[in-house]
Design brief:
elongated
Length: about 140
């Protein structure tokens, strides 16, 4: 009985030892970036304040979540606010853009934040069209 177990053990161990180590293939290199994207499109997933929100603070922190990680350098001139907002400061981290007005917004005004078509994801996709959301202050 023990002899059979030893033979089986030696067979199993030697089988694992003889299995070749996989090497990277061109298919894996080409497909991997597609698999790791969170979405096949690049657009706004959500925003705070939400589109159409009312009663928003005059000093909001505006948070925009995208469907893919953002290439930070593409934000430089591709975000606008209308009507004219105080200067917006902030930046991006992975899929999140955070913006803060440098001074208080005006009460009772509907502001529209527009992300320009040239904002790019780290996977090389562009928004392709200007994308906006609006909110109204207190």
């Amino acid at each position: 009985m023990w002899k059979r177990i030893r033979i089986l053990f030696v067979f199993v161990v030697s089988t694992f030892h003889c299995v070749p180590e996989p090497s990277p293939s061109l298919l894996g290199i080409l497909i991997l970036p597609l698999v790791t994207q969170t979405s096949s499109i690049f657009t706004i997933e959500s925003s705070t304040p939400a589109n159409g929100a009312t009663g928003v603070s005059l000093t909001p922190t505006i948070t925009i979540i995208m469907t893919q990680a953002i290439e930070p350098t593409s934000l430089n001139t591709n975000i606008t606010c209308s009507p004219s907002c105080p200067s917006l400061t902030g930046g991006s981290s992975n899929r999140t853009i955070t913006l803060t007005p440098t001074s208080a917004l005006t009460s009772g005004i509907t502001y529209t934040i527009t992300l320009g078509q040239n904002i790019q994801s780290t996977f090389g996709l562009f928004l392709g069209t200007n994308t906006s959301f609006s909110f109204t202050t207190l």
